[in-house]
Amino acid sequence: MLPSHDVIVLGGGAAGLMCALTAGQRGLRVLLVEHANKVGKKILMSGGGRCNFTNTGATPANYLSANPHFCKSALARYTPADFIELVERHGIAYHEKELGQLFCDVSSKLIVKMLVDECSAAQVRIDTQCQVHAVQQVEGGFRVDTSQGHFAAPSLVVATGGLSIPSMGATGFGYELAKQFGHTVLPLRAGLVPLTLSGKHQERLQDLSGVALPVEARHGKQAFRNFMLITHRGVSGPAILQISSYWQPGEELKLDLLPGQDAHAWLLEQQAQRPAAELKTVLGDALPRRFAQRLCEVWLPNRPLRQYNEPQLREVSALLQAWPLTASGTEGYRTAEVTLGGVDTDGLSSSTMMSRIVPGLFFIGEVVDVTGWLGGYNFQWAWASGHAAGMAV
Ligand code: FDA
Question: What is the ipTM of this complex?
Answer without folding.
Answer: 0.99
